[in-house]
Amino acid sequence: MDSKAERTQECLAEMHDRFRNTKSPADLLILIGRVGTGKSSLMEDLTGLDGYSQQSVNSVTQEAEIAKAVIEGREYFIMDTPGFDAENKNTYFEIIRGIQSIRHVSRITGLLYLTCINQSRFEDIDRNLIRFIYALCGEQYIPRVTFITTFWTVASVQQGETFNRQLGALQREWEQGVRTQHLSLYLHGREYNANGLDMGRIINWFANRDQVARHAKEMIHRNYRHTASEFHPPRIVRELDANIPMSETEAGRLLGLSSTSASESTSRGQPREQQEQQRRTLTPSEAPRNSRQEPRAPQEPPSSGFYILANGLARLIGNVLGGATVDVNIGGPGPGRPPFMGNVPTGPFDQNSSVDWLKRYNLDPSREGRLRYAATHGIGGEPFSADWGDAIRRDVMRRYG
């Protein structure tokens, strides 16, 4: 395990211990942005740690990483997320899953959205990202989103003027996307005075990196040191706390999640025709009731950063929530792979419960999950009846027991 992975595990353990001992959630800041926007560099500036930004074209965050920053005596946990790109939309889903997995022991104090100032055009992926942020956060939480521009490095006065014009264009796009004209902006690489006002001067990134980092920490202190008593969590947290299925959240609807794809995400990297065919084969009313597939042993879940994060966190916090099951639905099975739900049963195991048997083998125990299992394995009968559930239990025991 490399040092970044070790830090992530240490942070998860510390967040768990804090919640267990004080019932107080940790302050979490989430970094999101396109690939190559400097999230990892900002992570280093805020935490004072090395190893996140390798200063190379290949230094792209592939997994979720967490590190701790202490700013003006206050602890913040910073989560760096994989960058978004036009070819890979999985990060949208993983952001939601990451929030779902960690919300029990943390308070999402803020979201930091990064954009390169040297990006000449505002593209469709940028518009989609802004729409996603609004769906994820909701109107009440937008004041806790900081819109950050990076790469303020210029070779001439003219280039600096170009960047200033681009900043104005970006701000207009952001305001339109989140439906407000009062955004929290931060220009990472510009000089600020003691009152947090932009002085209009660009700092030499290489010669004065300490000053750049100091201004970034001051921004965090200004924007996030107060957690008001009327603090409103992001909309996605309120929705998940209200037991709204992921597919029915604002972000889920924006992404076009069905109840199946919300927990399975089988569409990763597959052609649309193949996705539609899979949806049809998983529809209970259309699946052959008496067909049987060859037994298949459980396979290892994917090893993405959020998978590791959610699984590790679920096991850490399982004994904190009063014996309840920690439901961390992070989905993501590939073809031939049972969906891993991260359910950690902390109560007694019921030998006669299909739900408990599904949990034992990391299969989806939800109502939708049981419907999918029955359809996939040709189990007939009245859904959710005792006989139907017993048939699922026997089938799980036969295949995986």
Order of helices and strands: HEHEEHEHEHEEEHHHHHHHHH
Major pleated sheet: 6 strands, mixed
Average pLDDT metric: 78
Low-confidence segments: 55-60, 264-304, 314-346
What's the count of strands? 8
Distance between the termini: 31 Å
Organism: Petromyces alliaceus (Aspergillus alliaceus)
InterPro entries: GTP-bd (IPR006073), P-loop_NTPase (IPR027417)
GO molecular function: GTP binding
Protein name: G domain-containing protein
Describe this structure in words.
The longest helix has 22 residues. The strands form 2 sheets. The chain has a 6-stranded mixed beta sheet with strand order 2-3-1-4-5-6, sandwiched between helices. Strands 7-8 form a two-stranded antiparallel sheet. Helix 3 packs parallel to helix 11. Strand 5, helix 5 and strand 6 form a beta-alpha-beta unit. The protein has 401 residues and is α/β, with parallel strands linked by helices. It has 14 helices and 8 strands. It comes from Petromyces alliaceus. Pfam families: MMR_HSR1. InterPro entries: GTP-bd, P-loop_NTPase. One of its GO terms (molecular function) is GTP binding. This is G domain-containing protein.
List keywords for this structure.
single chain; 401 residues; alpha/beta; six-stranded mixed beta sheet; two-stranded antiparallel sheet; 14 helices; 13% strand; elongated; GTP-bd; G domain-containing protein; P-loop_NTPase; GTP binding
